[in-house]
Amino acid sequence: MINKLCIIGVGLIGGSLARALRAAGHVREVSGYGRSIANLQLAVELGVIDRVEVSLADAARLADVIVLAVPVGGMAEILQQLAPLLTDQVIVTDVGSVKGAVVAAARAALGARFPHFVPGHPIAGREQSGVAASVPDLFRHRRVILTPGTETDSTALARVRTMWEAAGAETIELTAEDHDRILSVSSHLPQMLATCLMDMVVRHDDHRAILDCAAGGFRDVTRIAGSDPVMWRDICLTNRDAMVNALRQYHVELRDLISAVEKGDGEWLLDTFTRAKHARDALNRNK
Ligand code: NAP
After folding, report:
1. Using an 8 Å Cβ cutoff, are 87 and 6 in contact?
2. By the 8 A CB rule, do 250 and 213 touch?
3. Segment holding 2, helix H or strand E
4. Tens-place pLDDT, residues 177-207
């Protein structure tokens, strides 16, 4: 049970976590801190948070657990501002989609308080953003990846793990480096492909005709192109090496595909489509 939880950045993820913990009775009071007062007022009206913190100093002084739920590019500045305000009792965690850069920022900013920082990333989301899109069951039966280091305080880690379990999620642990490498393929690469496809089509001379003839496949593949641009800009800027590797690997696949189509290599095409179909069918069966 968390006595006082403070969410910094009450949007889709921060708002959904607050809703989930309230629904589970795992938190006594939730406050919110953020950039615009209008968003925080909306969060109060929607019953997502109980009250608005007007300063980071109040957020740090009054909370037992602080969750950073702002875009990854904003984490370092908030951690620097928070650092001198934290007491020994406060646990800080985050929900950022990239872990190496956030851990490095936390290490640099928090100094002796770094062991009480527990890095995390819920593998759940949707293409809408903002507190109005938050829902209490976003994390139910979903995974949350925690990336503690050797210095991470075991009590802080256990409390963050329990928090996510109360929100309905299963937690697993990875190193920050493994997280960023794996997610660059499972999450970041699909987003890049959806974005490139949508952007290519919309700039095509025949874009109206193409979109008029777009069926379920096009919609399925481009759905996530509707995600928040700031969030994805920040992910690209902070997980550069892993993303460039993933994009290069995909580039090789595309090059081979182009060559097979060009040469009319039916055997290569049938093998590739068959292999991918088996892999996709197995993914459906294992869900
Ligand atoms: P979101 O809905 O846009 O919410 C972000 C919130 O942070 C907004 O309330 C915004 O406030 C606030 N904010 C932005 N910059 C800030 C700053 N510099 N200082 C204080 N508050 C700031 O975004 P989200 O989808 O919840 O994403 C939040 C985090 O979760 C990101 O780190 C993202 O990588 C991670 N994540 C997202 C997903 C997903 O699918 N969306 C999934 C897993 C993890 P204003 O509205 O007032 O600007």
Report:
1. no
2. no
3. strand 2-8
4. 999 999 999 999 999 999 999 999 999 999 9
The packing angle between helices 229-238 and 189-202, to 10°, is: 130
- Separation CA 109–CA 80 (nearest Å): 5
Site residues for ligand 1, CB cut-off 6 Å:
9-14, 34-36, 39, 69-72, 74, 78, 95-97, 121-122, 125, 129-130, 228, 231
Q: Are 120 and 145 a contacting pair, CB within 8 Å?
A: yes
The answer to whether the beta carbons of residues 176 and 105 sit under 8 Å apart is no
Across the strands, what pairs with 117? Answer: 92
Provide φ and ψ at 120, rounded to 5°.
-145, 160
Q: Exposed/middle/buried for 90, CB within 10 Å: 0-12, 13-18, 19+?
A: buried
Tens of pLDDT along 200-242? 999 999 999 999 989 899 999 999 999 999 999 999 999 999 9
Q: For strand 143-146 and strand 120-122, is the pairing parallel, antiparallel, or unpaired?
A: antiparallel
The dihedral region occupied by 68, where left means phi > 0, alpha psi between -120 and 50, and beta the remainder, is beta
pLDDT band at 164, cuts 50/70/90?
Answer: very high
What angle (nearest 5°) sits at the alpha carbon of residue 162, between those of residues 159 and 164? 115
Three-state DSSP class for residue 47: coil
Q: How far is the CA of 286 from the centre of ligand 1 (A)?
A: 31
Q: If you ran DSSP here, which 8-state letter would residue 213 be given?
A: T
pLDDT score at 82:
96
Closest CA to ligand 1's atom 48 = 35
Relative to the CA of 94, which ligand 1 atom is closest?
Answer: 32
Instruction: Provide the H-helix boundaries in 9-166.
Output: 12-23, 37-45, 56-62, 75-82, 100-110, 154-166
